[in-house]
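Handout, page 2. Input:
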Amino acid sequence: METEQRVKEAIYRYLAGDKSYEDLLKTLPEIQGDLSRVRLAMEYISRGGDPERISDLLSWRDFEEFVSKAMELNGMDVARGIRAPPPRGFEIDVLGVDTISRIALMVDCKHWGRVRGISSVSVSMIERAKRALSRCDLIARILESFREARELYLAIVTLRETSIRSYGNVFIVPIYRFRDFLQNIKLYSEELGIEPLPNPCFLRYSLDSYLSK
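Output:
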């Protein structure tokens, strides 16, 4: 128990800026030298640490970077921080496209210690996604492979486990399950009854491809 507490405190202090704990953390077999901030936060929580305490040391950029890398490692084309001004303005934290399965995934990164307002955040995300799809040509100029995605799934990624796995047509995914989620989106979709949004740019892409033959 004393060792667990010492490791948790070392992680916390390292994330707070005390680099004197770096050598100690690198020796942990669970971490395997990976000192990325979100990875360390996940280890802290897995050892019984308070998510709310550690979340104060993480920024939304830390989350976006972790999520983006996970999506890239899963073979997706990825873009971050997509913005469009009014009218029909929208913003997307992270967008990924799997050109093999023709699935796109829009992710909101929430590093809350406690999950609050999931329903309102999910509804807002659905509305933003619909506005984004109404301007899919703009998205495709930033992430060209978006035209090849037949459908768009939505997910909110959180720091801690929640009792809510979905709201509406939005997945709620704790960060430590994110890699498994990426590899099994269709299974999660079937299990939770989530329907993706159709991508209007895919229809145009398919028609253009047909006409060019």
